[in-house]
Amino acid sequence: xxxxxxxxxxxxxxxxxxxxxxxxxxxxxxxxxxxxxxxxxxxxxxxxxxxxxxxxxxxxxxxxxxxxxxxxxxxxxxxxxxxxxxxxxxxxxxxxxxxxxxxxxxxxxxxxxxxxxxxxxxxxxxxxxxxxxxxxxxxxxxxxxxxxxxxxxxxxxx
Length: 158
Prior knowledge:
Number of strands: 5
CATH class: Alpha Beta
Keywords: Acyltransferase, Transferase
GO molecular function: N-acetyltransferase activity
Protein name: GNAT family N-acetyltransferase
Domain N-acetyltransferase: 7-158
Organism: Pedococcus sp. KACC 23699
CATH architecture: 3-Layer(aba) Sandwich
């Protein structure tokens, strides 16, 4: 997807993995997390098949600096009996914020969701991330009243 501002948004390719991993690490650190780089690379490689989801990268030009990324997971909405797209991540590099990158990534996620037959694209954000909330509100998204929970499993420890 090419945007009017010159940004290029594409699904991630093998050649993007180095830049994407750095962007994913910056995203994790924004939320005060520090995952292993090896785990992030493994995650990005898993998305190359597109089976469980996909990742998008935004570049300042077709071969320019990576300025943001998004991760979309494919799921189902049982209440509607329809496929559902869940935007798991949306990150814009600090120097590129307020330049339309987040909007371009979100619109590209929305377009992919429609292509896959999803009626909705849904996501969540931290309650204190008011900058992101302003973007989301400007797109006409509905704020959900649902709460998010998670519990640990016996899987790999952090």
